[in-house]
């Protein structure tokens, strides 16, 4: 019976939907995390009576056909790249982006990764790095005798060194943005990679046209809304249960047919 296989595709789709929602909920406290959603498409149809076919010698056509669907498939799990809330941390190495853009991170294999997570630290050489030790692409080194660090909204990094009254310019943080930022490939560790779908990165200073600004001593929170996720979870669970009911009903119908024989 076709309904068994159709309902099975619905159960598999809702199982994946729950997995996506659970990942969103699990990352509610992940810095710079961007929530995902599951998008679905219907599968192929069998035309029992094709709409628009001729029904008489006078040229009349069938206004409505008979199409029987074969279920659902997962089309994509796009990321919602909306702005997350900004949380003050009182830590001078933390930087949040207000608006468009990604920090550029230099990976050990030479590739450049992109992130919204600005929870930076200093490596043993004083270079501004991620918590995993990957250098921020600007390669900014903080002097060991620096008494204070300032990162302004335009990305200029300055430090006050012991014995000096004027701050020392250490470098410039730049941001990257993409035509299709949802096309970036997530690699874990709050990092994304460029793909053909995302397009090449556009690099400029924070505050430039189309780019966001920086806010020191703040971090961007995940853009996950707990109420929305729980509501979606309940809806997915009920959809899964209804597809299971269809399978039970189809099985009972087959059993009744067998008993008739």
TrEMBL record:
<keyword id="KW-0282">Flagellum</keyword>
<dbReference type="InterPro" id="IPR012834">
    <property type="entry name" value="FlgG_G_neg"/>
</dbReference>
<keyword id="KW-0969">Cilium</keyword>
<dbReference type="Pfam" id="PF00460">
    <property type="entry name" value="Flg_bb_rod"/>
</dbReference>
<dbReference type="InterPro" id="IPR037925">
    <property type="entry name" value="FlgE/F/G-like"/>
</dbReference>
<dbReference type="InterPro" id="IPR010930">
    <property type="entry name" value="Flg_bb/hook_C_dom"/>
</dbReference>
<protein>
    <recommendedName>
        <fullName>Flagellar basal-body rod protein FlgG</fullName>
    </recommendedName>
</protein>
<dbReference type="InterPro" id="IPR019776">
    <property type="entry name" value="Flagellar_basal_body_rod_CS"/>
</dbReference>
<keyword id="KW-0975">Bacterial flagellum</keyword>
<keyword id="KW-0966">Cell projection</keyword>
<dbReference type="Pfam" id="PF22692">
    <property type="entry name" value="LlgE_F_G_D1"/>
</dbReference>
<dbReference type="InterPro" id="IPR053967">
    <property type="entry name" value="LlgE_F_G-like_D1"/>
</dbReference>
<feature type="domain" description="Flagellar basal-body/hook protein C-terminal">
    <location>
        <begin position="216"/>
        <end position="260"/>
    </location>
</feature>
<dbReference type="InterPro" id="IPR001444">
    <property type="entry name" value="Flag_bb_rod_N"/>
</dbReference>
<feature type="domain" description="Flagellar basal body rod protein N-terminal">
    <location>
        <begin position="4"/>
        <end position="34"/>
    </location>
</feature>
<comment type="subunit">
    <text>The basal body constitutes a major portion of the flagellar organelle and consists of four rings (L,P,S, and M) mounted on a central rod. The rod consists of about 26 subunits of FlgG in the distal portion, and FlgB, FlgC and FlgF are thought to build up the proximal portion of the rod with about 6 subunits each.</text>
</comment>
<feature type="domain" description="Flagellar hook protein FlgE/F/G-like D1">
    <location>
        <begin position="96"/>
        <end position="159"/>
    </location>
</feature>
<dbReference type="InterPro" id="IPR020013">
    <property type="entry name" value="Flagellar_FlgE/F/G"/>
</dbReference>
<comment type="similarity">
    <text>Belongs to the flagella basal body rod proteins family.</text>
</comment>
<dbReference type="Pfam" id="PF06429">
    <property type="entry name" value="Flg_bbr_C"/>
</dbReference>
């Amino acid at each position: 019976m076709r309904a068994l296989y159709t309902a099975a595709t619905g159960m598999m789709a809702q199982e994946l939907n729950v997995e996506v929602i659970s990942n969103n909920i699990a990352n509610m406290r992940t810095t710079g995390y961007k929530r995902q959603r599951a998008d679905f498409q219907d599968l192929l149809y069998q035309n029992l009576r094709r709409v628009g076919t001729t029904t008489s010698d006078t040229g009349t056509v069938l206004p409505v056909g008979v199409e029987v669907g074969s279920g659902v498939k997962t089309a994509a799990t796009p990321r919602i790249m909306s702005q997350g809330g900004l949380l003050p941390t009182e830590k001078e190495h933390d930087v949040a982006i207000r608006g468009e853009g990604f920090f550029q991170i230099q990976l050990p294999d030479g590739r450049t990764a992109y992130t919204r997570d600005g929870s930076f630290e200093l490596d043993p050489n004083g270079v501004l790095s991620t918590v995993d030790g990957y250098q921020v692409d600007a390669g900014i080194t903080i002097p060991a005798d620096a008494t204070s660090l300032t990162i302004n909204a335009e990305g200029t990094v300055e430090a006050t060194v012991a014995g000096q009254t004027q701050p020392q310019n250490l470098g410039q943080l730049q941001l990257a943005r993409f035509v299709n930022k949802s096309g970036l490939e997530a690699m874990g560790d709050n990092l994304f990679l460029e793909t053909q779908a995302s397009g090449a990165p556009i690099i400029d200073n924070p505050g430039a046209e189309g780019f966001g600004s920086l806010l020191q001593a703040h971090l961007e929170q995940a853009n996950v809304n707990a109420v929305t996720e729980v509501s979606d979870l309940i809806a997915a669970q009920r959809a899964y249960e209804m597809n299971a009911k269809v399978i039970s009903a189809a099985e009972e119908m087959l059993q009744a047919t067998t008993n008739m024989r």
